[in-house]
Amino acid sequence: MAEINIKVKILRYDPQKDSKPGFKTYELQIEEGVTILDILNEIHWKMDGTLAYRRSCRSAICGSCAMKVNGQNVLACETPLHRFGRKLKIEPMPGFPIIKDLVVDLEGFFEKLKRVKPYLMVERPVPEKEFPQSPEDFEKIRETTYCILCGACTSSCPSLWANDHYLGPAALLKAYRFVFDSRDDGQDERLDIINDKNGIWRCHTIFNCMEACPKNINITEYLSKLKTKVLENSF
Amino acid sequence: MKIDEAKHYHKIDAVVVGAGLAGLRGALELARNGHQVALISKVYPTRSHSGAAQGGIAASLANVQEDSLDLHMFDTVKGSDYLGDQNVIELFVEEAVKTVYELEHMGVPFSRTKDGRINQRAFGGHSSLRACFAADITGHVLLHTLYEKCVEHNVHFYNEFQVFSLLIKDRVSRGLVAWDIRNGGLHVFHTKAILLATGGYGRAFKITSNAHANTGDSLGMILENGLPLEDMEFVQFHPTGMFRHGILLSEAARGEGGYLINGKEERFMKNYAPDKMELAPRDVISRAEQTEINEGRGIDGKDYVCLDLRHLGRAKLMERLPQVWELAYHYLKVDGAKEPIPIQPTAHYSMGGIPANIHTEVICDAQGTVVNGLYTAGEASCLSLHGANRLGTNSLQDAATFGRIAGIRMSEFVRNHPYEKLPFETFDKNLDNARQKIAHLTEGGGKEKHALIREELQENMTKLAGVFREEKDMLKLRKLIKDLQERYRKVTIDDRGEIYNLDLLEGIELGNLLSFSEVLVEGAIARKESRGAHYRRDYPKRDDQNWLKHTLAWKTTDGVKLTHDKEVVLYMDRFPPKERKY
């Protein structure tokens, strides 16, 4: 494969050394067919070992490597260089505190997830075999189970930038996934949790989350259905 | 400073290392039994590589086609090329059914049959529709469900902590030392029972489906503690790795009817496994592919063949194999509904690992002597369930089932045993080993870079100990690994910071990779036969007379010590060894 020259600007920040984040530029020669993650690996392994970023599966399922490339939140591992040309600007996902370089603090993100009680609550008798669920009922939640908790949606939500206490799209999508699961008995409790000033009503249907989702989940639509459900449940 | 005064000292009933399916399931069981359990993982739990498993989880539910425990057992025994321990396989197929129902009750969103039951699909080497699935993201939804249950049951998560050393003395596990990746600093976990569930060792190879995290860390630490590893020479190469990237395109693609074609557009499996065709076991297909490539029948004579899904139609691809389609589209710009997808064999699954008995207790010799308080499950372990070759969908089941069994056994152990003393009186002394590892990478002053050594290791492991092996190649590899180990002594890292020091982690991981790779290669040189995934060109036949037994390997000051006296558990009246044909 042909090699090309590229210029990569990366936002660097080491709290033990730097007073504030700043860009550093790397110039390198690399095969044309590589991904953004391949480029970060090449820089980290061959040019500058101090660069920090998260990565693991390489196949867009673990959700580690969400970051902002040329203004868009993407998964570095599945994003080919050719999507952006020869000049890259790589930054951590916005909306989260930076730990170091491209690594952001996701503790708050996972804490919000916990607030919606992200687990099946069962009060009905448990059968010997599986709980029956029709393909139609499964279809209601199918797409939402593709969420990999990468944080790209939550990071791109203006409502969240304005108010950090807002649950955000990922946690609300998880709430949807259980509220609409025909096997779940925790609906009322969960709807109560999200019917809150920092809950579902802070979603202003801006669609950024959908744009940012690397799994193309129709998040805004699911949150709209969740709003309807909250209203139905209140009467 | 006395031990319990140190601020990074944690005294807790049980510690689980690794938050994949096995680790989460073990931790959940401990927590449900009322024990305090720390779950240590170098990535956030939902980032674990169990989530990359796509096709399904095996259990003979018979929801779609007639099936039985016996049939699942026979398929697994045959798939293992008779090296799997049949008592373990027997327990496994029984528990598998229970495990799947239990996971469903926890909330796993399985794809459904028309009448609302868990749907099941075909998979290689299984003679019934046995793979319970959730589209092609089965591992992902299992992982997330178990994580969610662990949240519910207040498991103590230590996310982004990497274990640097195990504190074992006199065959008793006492605790471990872990590095806080986010904040820096070493922590001592003093505990009654440890579950090692760190997954496989596929990162030793260049073309691999494994995640960056799969560096076999606990295997390196087991060897360092003078304990053995088992059957390390058995590494499964998956036939549908994406060309050049190595990442996985699910076997479900063939389960749903996908073809494999060579440069002449022939379904070449007709020449290798005429009955099972594309649904023969993985070792058989990987060898067929490599043979096609080696004999010039790759696509345009190059080193790949193709997975052909065109005849399945776009609608079925989107419903059943959305991830497969997306991966090919994103990485290769190939629309699987219109074009065949370039593939090659990729290092995928580690059949070998930390030896354990049927209760997941770690053992340290052929007689089964137990290391008190130490347990292992999932891909890191070798029970040996998969023998010389694992069947697809048996691994998720292995992790979930034996993770649960480990949790049950550990709960009992924790209830009945006091804390054992740490190996050293002072807190600091217990950190010595971990500190030395860090000092070696930061203060050694050598000029070597860990990335270059790792690359050389991976490239040569794929080339010289891959799908086809022979002695002359592996002798070269043996020498090369020795050289790389020498060079490793001179590695210095760039990053001296405490916070999120990826450089340091990779440096430590390379030590583990080099350590178990040496053992893997020695095992492969010694095993002069072909069985399952271990294929020797110079010994192309299976040799039950001499080699129907497990390998145990120790690292000693004089190099690797191998023994071959650990017997395979066979039920001669039920499943006597036979020729393995598909």
Distance between the termini of chain A: 63 Å
Catalogue the unreliable spans of chain B: none
Query: Number of DSSP strands of chain A?
Result: 7
**What is the quaternary state of this protein?**
heterodimer
> Major β-sheet of chain A, in short?
5 strands, mixed
Average pLDDT of chain B, to the nearest integer?
96
Percent strand of chain B equals 15-25%
Mean pLDDT across residues of chain A: 96
Instruction: Show unreliable segments of chain A.
Output: none
Radius of gyration of chain A: 20 Å
Shape of chain A: elongated
Radius of gyration of chain B: 23 Å
Largest sheet of chain B: 8 strands, mixed
Structural class of chain A: alpha+beta
Number of helices of chain B: 15
The residue fraction in helices of chain A comes out at: 25-40%
Key attributes of the depicted protein:
heterodimer, A: about 240 residues, alpha+beta, five-stranded mixed sheet, two-stranded antiparallel ribbon, 9 helices, elongated, B: about 575 residues, alpha/beta, eight-stranded mixed sheet, four-stranded antiparallel sheet, 15 helices, globular
Explain how this protein is built:
- The complex is a heterodimer of chains A (235) and B (582).
- With 235 residues, chain A is α+β, with helices and mostly antiparallel strands.
- Chain A is built from nine helices and seven strands, in the order ββαβββββαααααααα.
- In chain A, the strands form two sheets. In chain A, strands 2-1-5-3-4 form a five-stranded mixed sheet.
- In chain A, a hairpin with a 2-residue loop joins β3 and β4.
- The longest helix of chain A is centred in the last third of the chain and has 16 residues, at 219-234.
- Chain A is elongated and about 60 Å long.
- The model of chain A has no long low-confidence stretch (mean pLDDT 96).
- Chain B is α/β, with parallel strands linked by helices.
- Chain B contains 15 helices and 20 strands.
- In chain B, strands 1, 2, 6, 7, 8, 9, 16 and 17 form an eight-stranded mixed sheet that branches. In chain B, strands 11-14-13-12 form a four-stranded antiparallel sheet, with helices on one face.
- Chain B is globular and about 70 Å long.
- The termini of chain B are far apart.
- Classes of the chains: A alpha+beta (235), B alpha/beta (582).
- Chains A and B meet through α1, α2 and α3 of A and α3, α4, α9 and α12 of B.
